[in-house]
Amino acid sequence: MNVRVRYAPSPTGLQHIGGIRTALFNYLFARSLGGKFILRIEDTDRERFDPTALQDIYDSFSWLGIHWDEGPNQEGPHSPYFQSERQPSYEAAAHALIETGHAYECFCTADRLETMRAEQTQGKSSVVGYDRRCRDLSKEDRERLRSENPHPVVRFKTPLEGDAVFEDLLLGRVKRKNKDISPDPVLLKSDRFPTYHLANVVDDHTMEISHVLRAQEWLPSTALHILLYRAFGWETPVFCHLPMVMGKDGQKLSKRHGATSLIEFRRRGYLPEAVINYVALLGWAYDDSREFFTLDELETLFDANKLNKAPSVFDYTKLDWFNGNYIRDCDDTRLLHLITPFLEEAGIRATGEQLKQALPLIRERMKRLEEAPQLLGFLLGDPAEYPTEDLIPKKMDVAATVEVLEGVLGLLEGLSSRSDEENEERFRLLAEQLETKLGNVLMPLRVAVTGSKVSPPLFGSIKLLGEDKARVRVGVALQKLKSTLGEE
Ligand code: GLU
User: For a Cys-Cys bond, which of 135, 244, 304, 479 suits 311, CB 3.0-4.6 Å?
Assistant: First the structure.
């Protein structure tokens, strides 16, 4: 079979994880089967069209490294298909359905529809949705009404009896009674632009789409689409409705759970390969154990038979874990390039050499690139302001902490020329002398030098910072402590 799939976003909002998952699965499906992947911009809703959303689609694809295979221009770089450029084909299709008796012109005014809806909500009518008033107008009535309203909408004649049935690749047989399907939905609006249903079906047919992989929220529309294919006399593509993406609480993933748009993930410093790897596992698994996949590998290993029916849960911690792994895999040049914008945004200036030396200290600790300024700030500028209490280990008081830091000052001298093991040994001895734990010696030093309780490895950081600066910072910490004792 000639595999042809499409991703068909509406440019009305930012690309979110669910959409990215649909795009990725379609892309991988095509690649794994030697098929074609099409990008189709469903922009027929001109009121909701948002140019930033369109740009976001392009940016998302280029960031992820995913390419579509064809578009209307046969030469040069492909632009995607735009439904707004294909209006005549939808109009022709709507009229073809009128000809064959599957659709009709509806002259109802907005006022009339509003009254109808109001009556329905007040329970005065048992019908929900359009009451089909224009479905069986006589020719004379139609002509009279057309002279009053030359721009009627075109509605589909949803069959009153029977069922819409299809075999979903994942869900198996899906059946819906026609009487439960939207009564006579609009196919062509009065501005002669199609609605989603018409344009989607016409394009999937015209573009010879073989498989439609889309989110499960589209399942109710599919029943109607099946009826449209039947009315046109067209073969239906194979449908595959992908499992929902949920938050940990079992609710559909939304802003309440955290970042959902791809751009937010980019801004927070996730790597494209981590996002691709993690998103590929939202509803798909290669086997019970393998977790790491590059895009290249997925392009050959993806197999729609391994999709899950059950909803998938978006786990931010797991994504962080993947991201941390991919950050560790970056070579120095790439990592430097990746963290630079984050440092610049935080106003941290450093030479390439300084940063290169610092990379080994932070590489292991970063889960997201956005953490780089916090991890590096103390090396390249002043440490962050910290509350004096942060210096004081649990179960110790100010006086004991002063004693610790005074002891530490003596050990800073020559620290850079000693190995980490040797330094650790000396600090351990100091702790013994002071009858406390090693952690209670290192913790105040860490806060004094870095301004934070979590930092890159301490001895390495001090070596990079320089003993002198470290000593000055410990001095500042001692002053802070002493001032609380009134002993300045
Ligand atoms: N334009 C629809 C969307 O925004 C496409 C749904 C489909 O794939 O049929 O998701």
Answer: 244
